[in-house]
Design a protein that fits this description.
Elements lengths: L8 H52 L12 E2 L7 H5 L16 E4 L8 E6 L31 E6 L2
Antiparallel strand pairs: 1-2, 2-3, 3-4
Length: 159
Amino acid sequence: MTRNKGFTLIELLVVIAIIGMLASIVLVSLQGARAKARDAKRVAELREIQTALISYYLTNQTMPINRTPCCGYGDTQANFLQELVDSNLLPGNPLSPPGASYAYYNYGPGNSVGALLTVYLEGSAPSTTGYPGTCRPWGPAQNWCDQGNDSWYCLCYPY
């Protein structure tokens, strides 16, 4: 009696199911890595903007204006931080990767906040005191840069 060599339908279905499960696990971990990469880019660009703000202040003895003082000034608005571009401190108007936007607030001189830059990060924060290197000028439960909100990366420049 001759026996056909090959796989049965059940064996093929089991192999396909295992490959499908492994592929879904890889895709989930890949999405997390992409979010972390976007967050790293946001943090690096926010620090670049902060350096440009400090240079602008040292040159002009003033900070760029907040064009919407009641609500903050974000990269979704036209000519975001145009003063930094006009002064050749940035190559173009800052624009965050999709998923969050940069915001700039100018609270004025003589306080612990001064100029504040913020961006929402997609990844999970490491602790209840926020991301390392960020400022947390407010106490618990007051706004996006308080000690109880780990989703925001905030940079202060008191002047």
